[in-house]
Amino acid sequence: MHPSTPGGAIGEPLYFPQVIVKRRLVLHFSLLAATLFTTTAVGSWLAAGFRANSPLTFDGFWNTLTRAPFEPALLWSGLPFSLTLLCILLAHEMGHYVTCRRYGIDATLPYFLPFPSMLGTLGAFIRIRSPIYTRRALFDIGIGGPLAGFLALMPAAVIGVALSRVGHNVALHGDWVFSTPLFLRGIELLLFPHVPASDIYLHPIARAAWAGLFATALNLIPIGQLDGGHILYAFFGRWHKLLSRIFLVALVAMGRVADSWFWYVWAVLLLFALRHPVICDESELGPGRVKLGWAALLMLILSFTAVPVRESEQPPGSTSAVWCDAVPGSHGIPARVKTGAHSESALL
Q1: 310 - beta bridge partners?
Q2: pLDDT tens, 100-112?
Q3: Domain extents for the chain?
């Protein structure tokens, strides 16, 4: 069935038969429910480690994911992570969706992608099914998602860091080491002055904010049809193709310098999304959008890390740490000190 439109003017919305929308809603909510389950299972793994002051291990991760379907009570503790993360992702996608609707551009509701990864999801996306005719519309749609998502993760980051704990080199134990984006590090320094990032055990809510920053950074990379690519095209038009290829080479070079395989994989995936639809519009963006463009660059800088996740360099079995029941602003001075080795997989 084909969409119908009340006219042919640019900017007028497309109308689809209601029966198609209802059928698609089943898919949207099914994917959302599945993603809620996978992210909640991951959240229960994070919560168990946080409660027991134990490192995050690969065994504990798979143990939790395999037990979660048979132990619903295990999932309750994972909701703070999953609900926070899904709200951030939903805000991002709805930023795109609402902007599309504003310009009368046909777009779907968000599709969430469940996946048994360390985050429980590959993110979410919307499909834009009608052309974008103006540079201003392209820019607004491109920045609408990252801006809404960033605003949503800001309070989550503050609350999550405030609930976090201090322990000597705690972030270096376990099987993975998560880098700290500048935005999250700034909040850590405000709430835990003089405490190194390696000594802060992030609460699951803070880890959801970390995931939101990670998604923001990936989307704002100025390549192809990413959000950053749309913004790049809105500013530079015909230079988009060349600049995208330059930034793609920069990704590969960064992967080499940082010794991070992730950027090689991401560069290969972006090879299939380098081409951008042509927009024949010579109108100026205006000073307000130029300022928002600089804001997008700032969000990228605050969210980006050269090595988001790496394997721990701690020797096998080295999971002991000194834990401090510190509170924000206490300069890491412990009220009580706990020492010992914990195995997360044994606790789950």
Answers
A1: 177
A2: 999 989 999 999 9
A3: 18-347
